[in-house]
Design brief:
The structure holds two protein chains of two kinds.
Chain A lengths: L1 E3 H11 L4 E4 L6 H10 L4 E4 L3 H15 L3 E5 L3 H4 L2 H9 L4 E7 L15 H4 L6 E4 L6 H13 L6 E6 H5 L1 E3 L12 H8 L12 H13 L3 E5 L1 H5 L3 H11 L3 E3 L14 E4 L6 H9 L2 E5 L19 E6 L13 E4 L2 H11 L6 H7 L17 H11 L5 E4 L3 H9 L8 E2 L10 H11 L5 E6 H7 L3 H6 L5 E6 L4 H10 L15 H7 L4 E4 L2 H14 L3 E6 L9 E2 L8 E3 L1
Parallel strand pairs in A: 2-3, 2-4, 4-5, 5-7, 6-7, 9-10, 9-12, 10-11, 12-13, 13-14, 15-16, 15-17, 17-18, 18-20, 19-20
Antiparallel strand pairs in A: 1-8, 21-22
Helix pairs in contact in A: 1-2, 1-7, 3-5, 3-18, 10-14, 12-14, 16-17, 16-23
Chain B lengths: L4 E10 L4 H11 L4 E8 L5 E10 L1 H13 L3 E7 L4 E12 L3 H13 L3 E5 L3 E8 L1 H11 L4 E6 L3 E4 L23
Antiparallel strand pairs in B: 1-3, 1-4, 2-3, 5-7, 5-8, 5-9, 6-7
Classes of the chains: A alpha/beta, B alpha+beta.
Chain lengths: 568, 183
């Protein structure tokens, strides 16, 4: 049938099973929103306060559901407002498809109103991007974009459509998602040797070699990285760890991939890693990292990282092998499939002595408990007590993020939504709204700091209007705590521009957006506020007054040996 | 330390707008300087071939190849080792010739290097030569005394020796030697 570009876009989104879009309209994307008017019964559109919030929401939706998140934005500033959020999704391998429109083709390249070369801008932060010049290519491009976003190592893809292409008419033939791989450009792509649209089958000789290495090891250590979470390989990873009987260090992105309460978990590894994790990295003789790219926050000093160990990397992305640390062996493949194959070949092992050594160190920081003030750990303990076990947590970036990940024991992949790679302050609220849109039956708790929350708190309007309740817990220390902590430790306490003694009043702010707000100064007040919020099944902003001096502990400085704790 | 060598990468890509910048920015983004770059369509008009030379150690060259393979516009990437590849570039020299004596000397040099003379004017001659760095450098050294007015090079292009092609993934080591001394 003959359809306009805008209608073809809608039909293709339905082909992909898209039911929710986050976005913000504008001049060039007018025709797309006009078409959306007729598809409102099949596609829910959530209008955010800002395009950045829309893309973070699509990201949060993708991370918690495992499906592709979708966002819309107009040309120029609409498109560039997505950039931070696209980079966030790219660094954390989250499948998001961004649809932007651009000025009409004849106006392209003439510095027209609201024109920007967004495909050029987003080249380094997308898996792939497209400028669709011909409406005849539109359907295939959209199908290809979704396939690329979710295949292999997932990531964001951007499609830029000039305004006239959304109005041009072309023949559209429905194609079921099952048949996308046999049609058009995508089918040709799948024949290329360089592209892995289907997860590559792990090399069985590589698997056998790792099994031999595991058998020979006396002090094995596992690292659970973000790849376990993306592959939803929780069960396989847990079986693997139990079978080897090895301690498991968890990265920020890996949180949730291995149950935090499993007795083999040593806690976070790296800069704010537990003593047990970091000492184990230093002492192990075999380190198996699953879906972990050894970023500078994990392998702080690559030359001394796991210096007594053979390092084995299991990753779906070949270009990650040996990128940051030299490895002795690697297996290319989807984490779930690789772990299945390993589990089939492994017998039950026992490493009691090694575990005894590792677990003689602390797996969790013991924070000082003071009676006269509320501490971060009191707040988090209360959350752990009161919140449902399957509650989803979204965080912003900073001290509160590290405290939350150290303290809360996540139980499943996708339970934690956090900006690990890019460290985007202002990520949390949008991501939490997206998580709630994708998981209406789950409680979503947004843990943030006063610095991060000030950045994108405008999305409270979205939360309230669409009935996507999020409980926002602000760790309010009236400072940019993490930067301040660095200033304490490395700048001799010269607190340059990190003091936030200027409001706003977060309770009044919440009320202005039509949401209840509470300010709490002790643990009992917090617990009661959180219970009220959960009982009401609505959103709430809880502003928790904590001391400015609180630090994230332990901490190893960037570039230092992983056992050189600055503070423990 | 790993030794830094000149690596030749042959890359087949979609012949489309924006592809070259996708490939080139990968090098700049990772901090590698491209020593030489040559692009052109192949016998299949939908496919272009890019030959890139980069200074890197072996590990860096492998990583950059793996990262290139992740680009959707890239069909295949092959690292061509010096001993198994034919590398050529075309260089144009515009040389000052102040008198007929100088002109005669330049013509002699051109003959020795099998360079062709493609333009002559009263004060200059333009020579075209095809070869590898060594030959081009030797010719440049000889022409310097006359005064090189301009020099332009196409960038190195390279093909594997023997009957095998860039798409051929499986081949035996010995096959590389086929036809090695023909040229």
């Amino acid at each position: 049938m003959q359809l306009t570009g805008a209608n073809i876009l809608m039909e293709c989104l339905l082909e992909q099973g898209v039911d929710t879009i986050f976005g913000f309209p504008g001049g060039t994307i007018l025709n797309v929103y006009d078409a959306l008017y007729d598809y409102g019964d099949r596609i829910r559109h959530i209008l955010t306060a800002h395009e950045q919030g829309a893309c973070h929401a699509a990201d949060g939706y993708a991370r918690t559901t495992g499906r592709v998140g979708v966002c819309f934005a107009t040309s120029g500033p609409g498109a560039t407002n997505l950039v931070t959020a696209i980079a966030t999704a790219y660094m954390d391998s989250s499948p998001v498809v961004c649809i932007t429109c651009n000025v009409e083709l004849p106006l392209l390249g003439k510095d027209s109103f609201q024109e920007v070369d967004i495909t050029g801008v987003t080249m380094p932060i997308t898996k792939c991007n497209y400028l669709v010049r011909d409406v005849a290519d539109l359907a295939d491009t959209i199908r290809e974009a979704f396939a690329i976003a979710r295949s292999g190592r997932p990531g964001p893809v951007l499609i830029d459509i000039p305004k006239n292409v959304t109005l041009d008419v072309a023949e559209y033939a429905p194609l079921s998602r099952r048949d996308h791989g046999v049609n058009g450009h995508l089918a040709q792509l799948m024949k290329r040797s360089s592209q892995d649209f289907r997860a590559p089958e792990p090399d069985h000789r590589d698997i056998d070699r790792l099994v031999d290495m595991i058998r020979a090891s006396e002090k094995p250590l596992l690292i659970c990285g973000g790849g376990v979470v993306r592959a939803r390989a929780d069960a396989e990873f847990e079986a693997f760890a139990n079978r080897i009987d090895a301690p498991v260090g968890i990265t920020v992105m890996g949180a949730g991939g291995f149950r935090g309460l499993n007795k083999l978990a040593t806690g976070l590894v790296g800069m704010h890693g537990s003593q047990a994790s970091n000492m184990a990295v230093d002492a192990c003789d075999l380190l198996i990292a699953v879906g972990c790219r050894f970023s500078d926050r994990v392998a702080l000093q690559p030359s001394s990282f796991a210096q007594n160990a053979k390092i084995v990397q299991i990753d779906i992305d070949r270009s990650e092998i040996d990128k940051n640390v030299e490895t002795a062996h690697h297996i290319i493949g989807d984490a779930r499939r690789v772990l299945q194959l390993l589990n089939e070949r492994l017998v039950q092992l026992d490493h009691a002595a090694w575990k005894e050594y590792v677990f003689s160190f602390k797996t969790q920081t013991e924070y000082d408990e003071a009676a006269d003030r509320m501490t971060p750990s009191q707040v988090l303990d209360a959350i752990a007590r009161v919140a449902p076990r399957d509650a989803i947590f979204a965080t912003d970036v900073g001290q509160h993020q590290m405290w939350a990940i150290q303290h809360l024991h996540f139980e499943y992949s996708g339970q934690l939504v956090t900006s690990g790679g890019f460290g985007t302050m202002g990520f949390g609220l949008g991501a939490a709204i997206g998580a709630k849109a994708g998981n209406p039956d789950k409680v979503v708790i947004h843990i943030t700091g006063d610095g991060s929350f000030r950045m994108n708190c405008n999305e409270l309007a979205t939360e309230q209007y669409y009935g996507l309740p999020v409980v926002t817990v602000i760790f309010d220390n009236r400072a940019l705590g993490m930067v301040r902590q660095w200033q304490t430790l490395t700048c001799g306490g010269r607190y340059s521009q990190t003091t936030l003694d200027r409001g706003p009043d977060f309770v009044k702010l919440a009320e202005a957006y039509g949401l209840p707000g509470r300010r709490v100064t002790n643990a009992a007040e917090f617990e009661s506020a959180l219970k009220d919020a959960l009982d009401s099944r609505g959103g709430m902003v809880i502003d928790c007054a904590i001391a400015t001096e609180e630090m994230v502990r332990p901490m190893v400085n960037g570039g230092s040996r992983i056992t050189e704790f600055m503070v423990d | 330390m790993n030794t830094i060598n000149r690596h030749t990468l042959a890359v087949l890509v979609d012949n489309e707008a924006g592809v070259l910048s996708r490939v080139a920015r990968l090098f700049s983004g990772k901090g590698y300087n491209i020593e030489s770059l040559a692009v052109g369509a192949t016998h299949d008009p939908a496919v272009s071939r890019i030959t890139i030379e980069v200074l890197a150690d072996d590990k860096q060259a492998r990583l950059i190849s793996d990262q290139l393979r992740k680009l959707i516009c890239v069909h295949s990437v092959k690292r061509l080792s010096a001993e198994h590849a034919i590398r050529r570039e075309l260089v144009l020299f515009k040389v000052a010739v102040k008198d007929s004596d100088a002109r005669n000397q330049v013509i002699q040099i051109a003959n020795i290097f099998r360079a062709s003379i493609i333009d002559v004017s009263t004060g200059s001659m333009t020579l075209a030569v095809i070869g590898e760095e060594g030959k081009v450098q030797a010719m440049e050294n000889l022409l310097e005394e006359f005064g090189i007015l301009e020099l332009v090079r196409t960038g190195m292009i390279a093909l594997e020796r023997g009957q095998y092609t860039i798409d051929e993934q499986t081949k035996e080591k010995g096959e590389f030697d086929y036809g090695k001394n023909v040229l």
